[in-house]
Amino acid sequence: MAVDREQVLRGAAALLTRKSTATMDEVARAAGISRATLHRHFAGRDALVRALESLGIAECEAALAAARTDEGPAAEAVRRLVREMESSAGLLAFLYTENQLFEGEEQNEGWARIDAALTELFRRGQESGEFRIDLTPVWLTEALYGLLASGAWAVAEGRVARNDFTHMIVELLLGGALRREEP
Question: pTM of this prediction?
Answer without folding.
Answer: 0.86
